[in-house]
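Following up on my earlier message about zinc ion. Here are the inputs again, as you asked, copied directly from the submission form:
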Amino acid sequence: MSVDFNKDYKLGRNERAGIKALHLLWKRVPLDSACENVTDLIAQIQHCKQYEPNGDWNSLEASADSNIRSLVDLENRTLSKQQIVTDMIQDIDEGVEIVKPDNVYRRKLDEVDQAYKDKSSRQKYADSETMANYYSSLWVYIEDNDPEDDDSDIEVGSVRQNFNDPITLGLFENPYTSELCKHSYSYESIKSYLGDRVKRCPYSGCSASISVHNLKEDQRLAKR
Ligand SMILES: [Zn+2]
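Thanks, got it. Here's what our run produced:
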């Protein structure tokens, strides 16, 4: 079957199954392994830094950073595309006939792209699990490197100062520390991550199972 987009092509109930199938294909965009590769790369860079602290790591880190951001942009755009199609399927279910669906789709995607451009970095990346994994592999190195030092949360390298909370990536706001693994988070972000459940600490490589009851306000970080 071919579609002549110059005609007033319409999507209705008959096409629903076809759209749904295409929609499912999008879910298989193989971004996960690309993201894991970049996250591994940043972990390796951190490892190498240990042995060659005066090496020129900044440009490598910057490159890994811009790669992971591009991948998250792509991830976000794929999610937006899926959302547009989900909305179209819902319209069809409600009996709406979509006239010139290619135009409708492109217009909506343009709107999404524009809205995305206007977002701040924090809005783009703070909710991203990929980004949280990426930054937590930066953090784990710092913590692992100095396991005996109680103040290691405060005596931090340049990386830690740039990226604080593992979830929002922002500076700590109202910092709380897990009693079980001594990792720290902004209270609001860890609370929304955990909800009322027991979950794994969001730092990669940390296997502590924590709930909000394991968190304590951390004055040391607050005073910083
Ligand atoms: Zn932890």
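One observation from looking it over: The chain has two domains: 10-118, 147-223. Hope that helps, and feel free to reply on this thread.
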